[in-house]
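Risk register update: the risk of archive-format incompatibility is retired. Evidence:
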Amino acid sequence: MLDIIKNNQIATTQNSEPGTPNSIAPTADEFYKRNIEKEGEDKLLQFLSFIVDDEEYALELSETSEVIKMREITEVPHAPLFIAGIISLRGEIIPVISLQKRLGLKERDATAETRIAIASYADIKVGLMADRIMGVLRIDPEEIESAPPIHTEVGIEFIRGVVHHQGRLIILLNLPTLFKMEEA
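Archived output:
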């Protein structure tokens, strides 16, 4: 059993295929297209966009609290492989996830553009390492499509949806599944 947040409440559900009623990964229709009856720009959703291994990803801005420059990460023995380690941020210890490892992408060394996005889920904070931050996007929920029904060994459970924005394909990540500590 896993706890997930749905409509601002914690719900418990079984593991199942994405998009099914018991899925921990609600489809884009279920997640983003809520409350779209609002008029004007109020219905636009805001996303933090970033690059990982030459692909553009995004998280809903409400899921992130800040972006910080790369800093020294302390490795943690016996942690899952996708956990880069921990950092101290204003006295708070925060685990850091390597999105390259978590998403099964090619690993690259950190550069001057590497950043850590601090994300929150169910009162837990985690840092997400990104190669480069692109900025904040405002997207109409009607433009968001559900993740394609491709079943691969790694990665599809982390995708909540996709959107075409200004000629770019942006993959919307499913934060609750990124936070799951068992290996993908």
